[in-house]
Prior knowledge:
Elements: H1 21-34, E1 56-61, H2 67-75, E2 79-84, H3 88-101, E3 106-109, H4 113-119, E4 125-131, H5 149-158, E5 159-169, H6 172-184, E6 188-190, H7 196-199, H8 209-216, E7 222-228
Parallel strand pairs: 1-2, 1-4, 2-3, 4-5
Antiparallel strand pairs: 5-7, 6-7
Helix pairs in contact: 1-3, 2-3
Amino acid sequence: MTDDVRDAAFYGRRKGKALRAGQADLIAGLLPTLALPLDRPAPEALADLFPHVPAEIRLEIGFGGGEHLVHRAGESPDVGFVGVEPFVNGMAKALAAVRARDLANVRVSDADAVKVLDWLPAASLDRVVLLYPDPWPKKRHFKRRFVGPDNLDRFARVLKPGGAFHFASDIDSYVDWTLFHVRRHPAFRWTATRPDDWRAPWAGWPGTRYEAKALREGRRGNYLSFERA
């Protein structure tokens, strides 16, 4: 895998409206407790990040306000969840939900997801999830789309054989882009066998606020699943 050289991040702004006092307290107090220790080498066993030994470990990149991450963590307490979100306001919202539900199986990072992927041990994840990422629709911004050969190499490195990459988007051009790149990558296999396999969300799908916005604006989500060879 070669280093990813780019002049801009895959995400947009890092902060929106000023945080309320309670949100600022979560960023100052709870975030350091749950944050991945990127300033030192990753543990040989990623399970050591959690108070129990997880049955599996999943990574969600760009979790927004944490709706999907928190829902999945609540329904599967035996699974370890790692969430990455550089947007401070989204992180504050997710931390509030993690605290309210007293979830012990969530770890987070506000760093660039590329840095997290490069930090993680090889073959340490059972699933990578990328839901409604910024589509960067202008051609000159295509290089900022998260799905590409370099990051697929990263996914291939951190996923266990038989692990999954889940991708959702309401932007047809990004769906086509993702299919093109992932199907060309030797480490991944698209698992769809019929149209409903990419038109219907995964089992237990709670929805996200980005999906809800797309539906209000007349766009339908697409849900792609790929297997790590």
